[in-house]
Amino acid sequence: MKVLVVGGTRFIGREVVRELEASGHDVTVVHRGETGQVPGGASEIRADRSTAYALDAMKRLAPDALVDMCAYVPGHMQELLDALPDVPRWVHSSTGAVYRPSADIPWAEDHPVGPWLWGRYGQDKLECELLLKSRRSERRTTVVVRPPYVLGPGNYVDREEFVFNRILDGQPVFIDGDGEAPLSMIDVRDIGRLFCRAATSALPDGRIPVNAATATQCSGREFVRLCSQVAEREVLTVSVASTTTGETFDRDDHVFPFPDFPYVLSGDKARELGLLGDPRPLSDTLESSLSWLMEHPERRSWHPGTKESRLREGRSFSE
Q1: Do residues 199 and 145 share a domain?
Q2: pLDDT tens across 192-225, in order?
Q3: How far apart are CA 134 and CA 131, in angstroms?
Q4: Position 269 in a domain
Q5: Which helix (H) or strand (E) holds 61?
Q6: From 17, 82, 247, 264, which residue has the greatest number of CB atoms within 10 Å?
Q7: CA 197 to CA 186: how far, in whole Å?
Q8: Could you tell me if 152 and 285 are in contact, meaning their C-beta atoms sit under 8 angstroms apart?
Q9: What range defines the domain where residue 240 resides?
Q10: 121 & 256 share domain
Q11: What Å distances lie between residue 306 and 236, 270, 292, 313, CA to CA?
Q12: Which DSSP string do the residues of 204-263 spell out, in sequence order?
C-alpha cells in the first residue's frame, strides 16, 4: 500500500512511519528537514507542506492513504484537500483538546466539542476537522484520530521531562490544584500502531472520529509518584491553588504540565475497530522516557517559567 505521511520526523510521526514500514507498506514522508531525519528506508519529499512544489509532488504520488500528522493550520488543510481531494483513505491527527471540558467522564466521540483550556490550539484543530467533514466524500474513508496525553521517548512536549528534571535535580514539583483529577495517557508506540492500522486496515466508508485512548489513567499526583519510583529518587510535592480551571492553559508557562481538570477519553470505539491492542504499562513508558532523557543531556537543562519562579520566591524547601 502506498502511504503518504505529512510530517513524520519527530515523536508520534516517527512511530507512525516505523509501524507502516514494519508492516511492509511503501511510505513517503513530506517534511521540512527541521526536526530530524526520516526513519528507516522511507522516501521523502523535503519541502514545506504549503509550497506549490510539495503539493504538486504529493498529487503526482497518488497515494492510497494519506496520514496528516501536522495539521495545525486550517489554511494548510484547505490546500491539501484541494491537491488531494480523492485520496481513498485520509487519517487526520487531531486531539482530545477539541472536546468541551466536563466532569462527566469518559468522553466518547459524540461528546460536545469546544471550547477547551488549550485555546487557539484546540480551536484550530477543530476547524481542521470541520474542513475535512465538509470536503471529504462519504464514499471515502476519513479517520479523525483524537489522542489524549501522549508520552514516551523523544516527547517534545515538556511533560514527563518536566517532572523528571526537577526530581533528578532535587527540586520540588508544584502540583496544580489537588492533583487528583483523572487523566488519559497513551504511549507513543501504541499510538503509532493505531495510526498505522487506521491508514491500512479494513474500515467502513465515511467519517470516523476515534479516540486514541487506552484504559490507562493516572492523576497528576500519581504521575509524579511514578516518576519518582522510576528515577529512584525522593520527591517533594507542593500543592498550589489551581491556575488553570476556567482559563486557558499556557503550555509555555505553567507550574505543572497537566491542567487541574479531568481529561479522560473513552477508547471503546478504537478497540471495537481493532485499532488498539493491550497498552504498555505507564511505568514502562516512563522508564523509556527517562532512558531517552539521560541519553540526551541537552534536555537536562531546564528553567522555570514565570509562574513557577514566582512560587519559588521566598520559599525554603529544605525541610
Answers
A1: yes
A2: 999 999 999 999 999 999 999 988 899 999 999 9
A3: 5
A4: no
A5: helix 52-61
A6: 17
A7: 16
A8: yes
A9: 160-183+217-263+280-312
A10: no
A11: 20, 39, 27, 11
A12: -SEEEEEE---S-EEEHHHHHHHHHHHHT----EEEE--SSTTS---TTS-SSSS-SS-B
Inter-residue contact 30 to 76 (CB < 8 Å): no
Predicted confidence (pLDDT) per residue in 45-79, tens digit: 999 999 999 999 999 999 999 999 998 999 999 99
Give, for 52, the enclosing helix (H) or strand (E). Answer: helix 52-61
CATH code: domain of residue 194: 3.40.50.720
Residue 306 sits in the same domain as residue 165 = yes
Q: How many domains does the chain have?
A: 2
- Say yes or no: 29 and 103 in one domain: yes
Question: Could you give the CA distance from residue 167 to residue 171 in angstroms, rounded to a whole number?
Answer: 6
Answer yes or no: are the C-beta atoms of 217 and 233 closer than 8 Å: no
* Cell numbers for 217: 489513567
Verdict on whether the full-model pTM lies above 0.85: yes
